Amino acid sequence: MVKKRIVINYDNLPTGVLQEIEKQYPEGWANHVIKVQGAKDNFFYAILVDTEDISYLVKVKVKKDRKGIDSDEDFLPDFEEISGPDAAISPNDEPFAEQAEE
After folding, report:
1. Which domain, by its residues, includes 18?
2. Is residue 95 part of a domain?
3. Comparison of pLDDT for 9 and 77, the residue scoring more
4. Does the residue 8 lie in any domain?
5. Does residue 43 belong to any structural domain of this protein?
6. How many Å from the N-terminal Cα to the C-terminal Cα in the chain?
C-alpha cells in the first residue's frame, strides 16, 4: 500500500498529527528541520512526520540567527584567565574527573 503524501503548514495540523510529532521527536524537532526546494527559486523548511496512512511534510517557521561571532577572540577565553599553577594538567589527569576532597 502506498502512503498518501501531504504538505501542510504546522498551524493547520490536526491534533493527532501534533501528538505524532511529540512521539517521533520527544526531544524537539529543531535539529530535524530540512530545507525543501519549492517551485522556481522558492524554498521552505519542514519536518517529516509519518502516520500509518499518511506521510506529512510539515512546513515550519524557522528563525535564523543573524548574529554571529565576529572573530575567534570573541569566543575563546583569554589565556591569562586559564593559566596559573592550578591550570596545569598532568598526563595522568582525566578530563572532568572529580577530585577527592582533603
Report:
1. 4-59
2. no
3. 9
4. yes
5. yes
6. 68
Cell of 94: 582525566
Q: Which residues contact 36 (CB under 8 A, 6 or more apart)?
A: 43, 44, 45, 46, 57
C-beta separation of 48 from 6 below 8 A: no
- Asked whether residue 52 is assigned to any structural domain, the reply reads yes
pLDDT over threshold 90, residue 65:
no
Residues 6 or more apart whose CB falls under 8 angstroms from that of 86 comprise none
Check if the beta carbon of residue 56 is closer than 8 Å to that of residue 8: yes
pLDDT band at 62 (very low <50, low <70, confident <90, very high): confident
The pLDDT > 90 percentage for the chain reads 34
Does the pTM of the predicted model rise above 0.70?
no
Distance set, CA 26 to CA 5, 54, 101 (Å): 23, 20, 39
Q: Distance between alpha carbon 72 and the CA centroid of its chain, in Å?
A: 23
Task: Please report the beta strands in the chain, taking only residues with DSSP state E, as ranges in sequence order.
Answer: 4-9, 34-37, 43-50, 54-59
